[in-house]
Amino acid sequence: MRRYQFALAAALLGLATAAWAGGPAGAGNLGLGLAYMPTATLSGQTMEGMDYILQGDFPVWSGLQGQVGLGADSVHQQSVNNPFPGLYFNDTTDSQNYSLNLQLNLHPAAFAGLSFNPGNGANPDGWVYWPSVNVGYTLNKGDQAQSSIAHGLGGFSNWGEFFRLDQTLNYQLTLPLAEWLSVSAGYNRNLASNFTESNNGFTNNVYGWNEGESLGVSTYINLVPGAGADKARPFLPHFGRLGQLDLAFAWTRSIQAPYTDPANDYIVTVGAPVSDCLSLAISGGNTVINQGSFQVYDAFLSWAFGSPEERTGN
């Protein structure tokens, strides 16, 4: 039995040694994002919000990388309703949401002993024709305060707080089709949603209510001829080599019970390395729901760790 244990340990050590040859996560990176939702009007209700994101990548092996993300957002909604002359309601809702996102990305090509060389058999998403699998867990905690103040006919007010805790599993498959092109597809479904309402003691626990899917395509454009295959140019995770531009398109669709109408998001992102360690991405998204649509704009700045030589296995 001990002989087999030693053999297994040796095999695992050999596998780890073969896999430690650079990969899409490089030596890891850290990014900070800021998203802004301008004032929009849906069904007579105005809304605006901000979102802050802190996210980091780190290599476990070159074929196995992790990601940790923290998010915080706030949304303010307000509407005025005038059901009949002499009476109108001023309704406001202030929401805060905090999230923790954990991801694990597996690249089988690294475990097959293939070296990672972006621009020559690989791109920032992985090895050409070798799919990668991403499995993630997201925890969202939401707090919402609602108030309704009636003006006229004596007037009155109503106030309440709502709390929500969501746990979601995310899955994504990414396939690089060329040094300059990748496609992806994803699916998510919540494990549990817990609701609490403060003003009447109401609580509810539901499972499998919310789900969504996504499709994406990324293309890497050489702003400098031959930049993607030039090993002398530093490689930065997610964005390619210095002198390249990442142009990405994504569509996501989500359904949140008990609401049956889906939300569709259409997102365009442009990103590029701006130095041997720094990358910048800017995106714009349009969300379409049954009441109308609203836009979200995002800027994301990321810093790659390690020297450029450490980020690939070449």
Short description:
By secondary structure, the chain is mainly β.
Task: Give the secondary structure arrangement, pairings included.
Elements: H1 2-19, E1 29-42, E2 45-61, E3 64-84, E4 87-106, H2 108-111, E5 122-123, E6 126-127, E7 132-151, E8 156-178, E9 181-197, E10 202-206, E11 211-222, E12 235-236, E13 240-241, E14 244-255, E15 263-273, E16 278-289, E17 292-304
Antiparallel strand pairs: 1-2, 1-17, 2-3, 3-4, 4-7, 5-6, 7-8, 8-9, 9-10, 9-11, 11-14, 12-13, 14-15, 15-16, 16-17
CATH architecture: Beta Barrel
Residue ranges: pLDDT <50 for 5 or more in a row?
1-21
Number of strands: 17
CA-atom Rg in angstroms: 24 Å
CATH superfamily, by name, is Autotransporter beta-domain
Structural class from helices and strands? Answer: mainly beta
Share in helix? under 10%
Strand order of the largest sheet: 1-2-3-4-7-8-9-11-14-15-16-17
**Ends: how far apart?**
39 Å
The topology string of helices and strands comes to: HEEEEHEEEEEEEEEEEEE
- What is the percentage of strand-forming residues? over 45%
Counted by DSSP, the helix tally is: 2
Overall pLDDT confidence: 83
CATH class: Mainly Beta
Tell me the domain tally.
1
